[in-house]
Design a protein that fits this description.
Helix content is about 15%, strand content about 20%. The protein is built from 3 helices and 9 strands. Strands 1, 2, 3, 4, 5, 8 and 9 form a 7-stranded mixed sheet that branches.
């Protein structure tokens, strides 16, 4: 029986890169088995290079160039949770074929310097995905096309497109894979 995954973001803007493909992620569901089906309580947050729209940013670049993000990341200094009233969010990483990994991390979005910026949030998300890939490459994947590791999908291939509010304070990232990222 083929695995089926829900779309986190619904309708998507096509990618300009012919090698970029969206990761079909299972959407987090509560322990009672209910998938959030209502309207999210907070806006989704997009990540782009200056001059692009809904194409995402290379996670490798986010970690390597974090100090100069305002020069290349669109709206890098926007305080993305300033009006949300949230002090922290729950970041959940789900990956096709690696459902056995329960990656749930608390992320402070109200820092001592003020509300977290888009660039700071991208950095935290990218750090979490780097750690997730480190762990996931040693796990058995039920979906070979989405296997993580040296001869498969590597962290360097990951593109952060957006962060979706899936329920309450829970967020999942819309991720793409691009071997040329």
């Amino acid at each position: 029986m083929p695995l089926s995954y829900s779309s986190i973001g619904g309708v998507f803007t096509p990618f300009a890169s012919p090698t970029r493909r969206r990761v079909p992620q299972p959407v987090y569901s509560h322990t009672k088995g209910l998938v959030f089906a209502g309207r999210p309580s907070h806006e989704n947050i997009t990540f782009d290079i200056v001059g692009t729209s809904r194409q995402g940013v290379s996670m490798r670049d986010v970690l390597a160039k974090s100090g100069s993000a305002n020069a290349w990341m669109a709206c890098a200094n926007d305080q993305v949770f300033a009006s949300s009233g949230l002090k922290r969010i729950t970041l959940r990483i789900k990956w096709p074929g690696l459902e056995q990994i329960d990656w749930v991390r608390s992320v402070d979005v109200n820092l001592s310097s003020g509300p977290i910026t888009r660039a700071q949030l991208a950095f935290v998300v990218a750090q979490n995905f780097a750690r997730f890939v480190e762990k996931g490459q040693y796990e058995h994947s039920a979906v070979p096309d989405w296997r993580l590791g040296q001869n498969a999908i590597r962290f360097d291939h990951l593109v952060l497109v957006s962060l979706y509010n899936i329920s309450g304070d829970s967020y999942q990232a819309d991720i793409a894979v691009d071997p040329r990222a």
